[in-house]
Design brief:
D-Amino Acid Oxidase, Chain A, domain 2; 8-stranded mixed beta sheet; 2 domains
Length: 382
């Protein structure tokens, strides 16, 4: 029995925030037929709905700063239902890391980021409820904030479908290479898809798909936990705080969203909760930084996955130079995917339509640095 054959200008594998953003910007740029191939439209295991939702311009790599600038404005202008909260971001550091934070602040200012550098005394007077004795400096970006990750995903998907992007509920099981091109995608249903361009936006599954075409990506699923806690008495309005212990805490509804990423977490598709993690690791770090949290109530917790780039923690974007022209990867976001989805979607559309970046030059985020084993990492707290 002959298999069904479809043809598209662009086939996007994975319809999370990244895939939907790519679909939207491709269609917006005039690409006629775009397929969004996604096996699970309920997004039960997708990274996006489980994300923290923070969006910041506080990076050291200029590309990340510029992507955040574009994406945050896009969220505010184009996705009015994402519950954007401009609560600000506050990075704090001890004396040993102060110079890195201050150097980063100079780069951020040069890229037009509104920020304030606070001394220990400045931190103490502004945030009297925070333990500051071990801190030397804080950098506050008041125009950064957070949003509802699931609303971003649904909003981007809606925008893509409204422009005629075709949702395909199926799983890619094989990629057929002819010469320097991915010629065909084989789907679980038996359908074969031909496309002029293939975009691999499959998140934590991106590396296994790339392996099918001989492209090795140092990207692995890394479990991270998110906790929702409440206090008997709420603190004064606070920004999202990121401290040297990698603790992240921000207001959320009637309480606070808290997380602490463990870099030594074993890699793999594990969404099990670790009942000891909050008690042994997160709570002590939280109470040490903000004493009011000694008497919190843990209301909910869940696990999500980062597509962690082991080379340098930054995304990998583009093709395998000189080897596969029409196969573009967008993965390895290491926790920054949601906040950069609009900028990455636009960049992928530029590569497809123009063959080169038109707005933000993201060449340093390309696959070549993986082949050369030359990390391009963020400096300071990530």
């Amino acid at each position: 029995m002959p298999h069904h054959l479809s043809h598209y200008d662009v086939a996007v594998i994975g319809a999370g925030a990244m895939g939907c953003a790519a679909g939207y910007f491709l269609a917006n740029a005039g690409v006629k037929s775009v397929a969004l191939i996604e096996p699970d439209p309920t997004y039960a295991q997708a990274a996006t709905p489980l994300a923290t939702g923070g969006c910041r311009r506080l990076f050291s790599c200029p590309e990340n700063i510029e992507m955040s600038k574009f994406s945050i404005e896009f969220f505010k202008r184009e996705l009015p239902d994402v519950a954007w909260r401009e609560g600000g971001y506050l990075f704090v550091a001890p004396a040993a890391q102060a110079s890195v934070l201050e150097r980063n602040a100079q780069v951020q200012r040069a890229h037009g980021v509104v920020l304030e550098v606070l001394s220990q005394a400045g931190l103490k007077s502004r945030y009297p409820w925070m333990h500051c004795e071990d801190l030397a400096v804080g950098v506050l970006s008041p125009q950064d904030g957070w949003l509802d990750p699931n609303a971003v995903l649904q909003g981007l998907r809606k925008k893509a479908l409204a422009l005629g992007v075709a949702p395909v509920r199926d799983r890619v099981v094989n990629l057929v290479v002819r010469g320097r091109r991915v010629a065909e995608l084989e789907l679980a249903s038996g359908t074969r898809v031909r496309a002029d361009f293939v975009i691999n936006a499959a998140g934590t599954w991106a590396a296994s798909l790339a392996k099918l075409v001989g492209m090795d990506l140092p990207v692995y699923p890394m479990r991270r936990f998110e906790h929702f806690v409440e206090l008997a008495e709420a603190l004064p309005p606070m920004p999202l705080i990121k401290d040297p212990a990698r603790l992240v805490v921000r207001p959320e509804g009637t309480g606070y969203a808290v997380g602490l990423v463990k870099s030594d977490e074993p890699r793999g598709f594990n969404l099990d909760l670790d009942p000891r993690h909050f008690e042994d690791v997160v709570w002590p770090a939280l109470a040490a930084r903000i004493p009011a949290f000694e008497s919190l109530r843990l209301r909910r917790e869940w696990a999500g996955l980062y597509d962690q780039n082991e080379l340098d923690g930054n995304m990998i974007l583009g093709n395998s130079p000189g080897r596969l022209d029409n196969f573009l990867v967008a993965c390895g976001f290491s926790g920054h995917g949601l906040m950069h989805a609009p900028a990455v979607g636009r960049a992928l559309a530029e590569l497809v339509v123009h063959g080169a970046y038109q707005t933000i030059d993201l060449a340093r985020m390309g696959y070549q640095r993986v082949l050369d084993n030359e990390p391009y990492a963020e400096a300071g707290i990530v």
